[in-house]
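Model: Ready when you are.
Researcher: Fold this.
Model:
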Amino acid sequence: MLKIENITYSYKRSKQAVLSNYSLEVKDGTICGLLGKNGAGKSTLLYLILGLLKPQSGEINYNGFRPFDRKVAFLNDVFIVPEEFYLPNVKLSQFVKSMSAFYPKYSHADLSRHLSTFEMTPDVHLGHLSMGQKKRVFMSFALACNTSLLVLDEPTNGLDIPGKRLFRKAVLDSMTDDRTIIISTHQVYDVEKILDHVVITDTNGVLLNATMMDISSRLLFAFTNNKDRIANALVALDAPGGANIVELSDGYSETDVNLETLFELVRQNPTIVKDLFGGR
């Protein structure tokens, strides 16, 4: 389990803390979407979780490790695919040979399987690939390392439409009960079908931390052109021919969660969200 307790972090030249008295828990076996506005501290939070930054106060614990201690047993069980990354100008086989040694649970069979899912082959040369192809290959390697914690920062940026579909398949195929995947993204439509947990955050804390099942049992998401429903909705976003709305559940119906309207509900009506799901 990932447990974050009352952490604060600020950069040296900034007068304002990026994260202040921030707490969060994410259970094992979860695909968790991390959502927030630009400047909400999402990337900083990811770097703190991975031990690349050290909180100025508070504690982070992942499966008994404090990330900033940078112990080998922690480092070889976590992996990040950042939004921007560099791959060397070598064959994939050379890259795998040098990098896989750092990850004891790496599986060459899993790499082959994920490459196949992404419609890539093991004989590729990394220097000859487009950015989207590099992301497919790097994602395949990341999944094949079988780390307990995998962090993906804007993973669908640079992927074409088929690539986004294949990304969702690869992630779902790689999940186990003891693996946690955290996806930080603004491209909510690319990931909302594979998430089973959502965290919406800002610099002062967690605004929403709930399972998709819990959200769909408490809220109804719909498209309508009925003016009365639109006027009485908890939130309504204009759409061609009507509006996407959020309403309180009637206790009988369940709908697919629309992350865009959920995010707007959290932004516009935080009190309602806190009453329904708890919060800071």
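Researcher: Now this one.
Model:
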Amino acid sequence: MSDNGQDAPPERVVNTYNGWDPLEEVIVGTAFGATKPGHEPAFNAYVRSPQDRLSRAARRPAELIEAAEMQLDNLARVLEQEGVVVRRPTPTDFFTPVRTPTFEVAGQNASACPRDVLLVIGDQIVEATMGMRVRFFEYLPYRELVREYFNRGARWVAAPKPSMADEMYTADYSTQEVGFDADTHPSLTELEPCFDAASFARIGRDIFYQPDVVTNDFGARWLARHLGPEFRVHRARFKDPHPQHIDATMVPLRPGLVMMNPERPALDDTVELFTSNGWEVVEAVPSVSDTIPRPDEVSNWISMNVFNVDEETIICEEQEEPMIKMLETLGFRVIPLPFRDVYRFGGSFHCCTTDIRRRGGLKSYFPKLDG
């Protein structure tokens, strides 16, 4: 009870509906314990030569882990200076084998990218199924945090864990002659619900997903039914030979402004849905990785993987000068930070964070869909 005899409002432990409301609490990943995964069926879309299928799990070199962790620690410090509470996953050794009744792998992955594992919508945390065998148990480093959030009042649900049996993956899949197409050449079957959290973009009541090499339509249908009629889940398709996650293809920057990848045009009416509801659509600029060597783990559009502190403030890799200038032209205060050493662990600022609490409520940003 409050001093005036009224019930005090519940603490907002978990609260986020988009990627731009003022950030109050966030999880930043860690590179400690990371493993370079060996080949598995989920990687077939990326195979360039038969030799790729022979790759084996290996520990990441200590010097690469230390360099990445320094940049992740720096990101955490900067966010704290911006007034944000920063949490980190439990350090975990991923160079450990996994064996289940349906698959086995000699090593796992990492916990550098919490965005891929945890989907936060409103006051609930959804643990994604994950689409790769090496990431099956990647939720475990976050369990201590999620358990704490639950005990403080948040909702917590784990999506159905798929078997990841061979039948979940399209047999003998390849993109060497025919590029990925969710309708005619998918890498995943519809045997079971399957999704990574980073395949979804949250825009208030409307949530967009891209069926890709780790997310199928069954997974999106499960999420839509779980969330209920308060939310609208939209399928968006883009021309991409091997898509994985949506945050280097379509990036909402603030209400009314979305950044699209010009090399991956929409194959449906996604752009028209934005423009017909008053959104400005801007084309992203490619990464300087075209001229500066980059690891295979990220694309030349890693420049799009930015992270909002609020509607006016955004974090971008310090060497991505074309993207920084573009964002400044759009009216953002840009915080440039070094992050290239983190790329080989799976992504940039958006991948390596999961916003847990933002100051704001559920809104609709697509008024023509509200009738």
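Researcher: Key takeaway?
Model: Confidence is low (pLDDT under 50) at residues 1-9.
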